[in-house]
Amino acid sequence: MNFFKIKTSWSNSEFILIKLCMASAYILIGSYFHEFFKNYYTILIVVFTITVIWFVYQWLKKMKSQKQQ
């Protein structure tokens, strides 16, 4: 399976997506037991979902373009 052997390159600005995705997941998980973030669960879930979809799309697009070269 060559899926994990395909190399891609990412710019710093493209890493914003994965960083935002991971940060929202960390906050969501970490705040599950904390009352301060209780009102922000919906916002965090929306941000996490959007960034996951966006990041996976970008990743697959890059893998496809690398494979064609």
Task: Write a brief caption for the model.
The chain is 64% helix and 0% strand. With 69 residues, it is mainly α.
Explain what this protein looks like in three dimensions.
Helices cover 64% and strands 0% of the residues. The chain has two helices and no strands. Helix 1 packs antiparallel against helix 2. The protein is elongated.
Quantity of strands, as a count:
0
Average per-residue pLDDT, rounded, comes to 82
Q: Which structural category fits the helices and strands?
A: mainly alpha
Note the total helix count.
2
Instruction: Give the N-terminus to C-terminus distance in angstroms.
Output: 18 Å
Percent of sequence in beta strands: under 5%
- Unreliable segments (pLDDT under 50, ≥5 consecutive)? none
The biggest sheet amounts to: none
Instruction: Give, in order, the helices and strands.
Output: HH
- Relative helix content: 55-70%
Primary descriptors:
single chain, 69 residues, mainly alpha, 2 helices
Task: Give the topology.
Elements: H1 15-30, H2 41-68
Helix pairs in contact: 1-2
